[in-house]
User: Fold this.
Amino acid sequence: MSTQTASVAEKKPTGGGPREFLSITDSRTGKVYELPIENGTVKALDLRQIKTGPEDFGLMTYDPAFMNTASCKSRITFIDGDKGILRYRGYPIDQLAEHSNYLEVAYLILNGELPNLAQYAAWADEITHHTMVHENIKDLMAGFRYDAHPMGMLVSTIGALSTFYPEAKHVHDPAVRRDQIVRLIAKIPTLAAFAYRHSQGLPYVYPENDLSYAGNFLQMMFKIGNYKVDPVLEQAMDVLFILHADHEQNCSTSAMRGIGSSEVDPYSAAAGAVGALYGPLHGGANEAVLRMLREIGSKDKIPQFIKECKESGGDVRLMGFGHRVYKNYDPRAKIIKKMADQVFEVTGRNPLLDIALELERIALSDEYFVKRKLYPNVDFYSGLIYQAMKFPVDMYPVLFAIGRMSGWLAQWQEMIQDKDQKIARPRQVYLGEGERPFVPMTSRK
Ligand code: ACO
Assistant:
């Protein structure tokens, strides 16, 4: 077979363009192609030129679950899973958790830079003055069953907001976009707290403007009589929101971008993102950690549990351990573990903590976990803190959604402004029947 260099190579730049290429030989034709490499990627569309003949559609990649496909260029969040690094706009997560607050981090994620004093004051004031929801939302809430899951209620009420703000559909107008971003970040704690109060049969508590973002959420959740927000718990809630604010192209963020790519309003896209987060593989793992710790019951049962994990061939898992991206200690888990002591000083020590600490100690020195690079992830300790703060387990993914709203919106905005983006529309490998004639029902076997 003769070897020739085909069309992609003809694009090889002579000047300042990409200088690195991937050479591919198509064994079907013997042709050699050179695909430009840029930012460690080759363009999937460049493969389309690799054909066996004029009738051939061209080569595609097959990548279920997007295990190795970059769907966008982003400047928001950087993760190095091997080194356990997480940064928002370049700032390490531990520095933000220690020195910043959630609203400042939300501003950073959305705008690319930390705000100065005046910018922060204006932003915090704007968010604080958009926390109320239309009274009709309460009627909508009243329609849910007494035991409705708060995530189901959140999906519905966030989606319903689009009917209150019909101008939100003008997604290419920056001023309109900004108004909806403010509304969504401001209102999600109110919707979340209302959903909880509905499930408890408690009257709704309205936002209070002299409280912080986290403090206001806690009072809307728990206020009965003379409730006062504890500053340690307020700080812990704020840090938990920061830790969950963004995590680049995860399942719910991809849902937000995918739905948003149809140019629907951001309320509808965010409702879809909350729906994605509702799934047990995404927002529900910390609940599974608590269940596991309760089932283990006492420290002396840990060795037996670890043995079952190792011998089950992956069926029994140490929940809160392992991560698709992190092959090192999840930096968020480190921060949460440190914070747990401060929280338990206020709430009393969660008895499950001792089991968790011992479980971590044993697992991190066990060859099975070491070899597979299984370390605690963000969910290993967060459930213990939420439980100590008196959140019911159904609310855990809701807390995640409140923090993640700023990340979803930043990613949505980046997608809307990205000239490379179009409506998301993956290809498929069709393996079904070829053409066949319709058979009338009476003639079918
Ligand atoms: N306990 C015991 N063994 C595990 C665990 C675990 N938690 N996680 C992975 N393994 C083992 C697997 O059995 C497999 O072993 P093998 O090589 O002998 O077959 C190996 O480690 C690789 O596991 P995969 O499932 O292929 O890794 P993947 O990257 O697909 O999974 C996941 C990541 C889903 C998070 C996994 O580690 C897991 O199930 N962890 C427990 C659930 C959990 O904590 N989820 C929360 C993630 S954080 C978040 O979503 C916010």
Q: What stands out?
A: Residues 1-7, 9-14 have pLDDT under 50 and may be disordered. The pocket of acetyl coenzyme *A is lined by residues 282, 285, 309, 314, 317-324, 372, 374, 377-379 (CB under 6 Å).
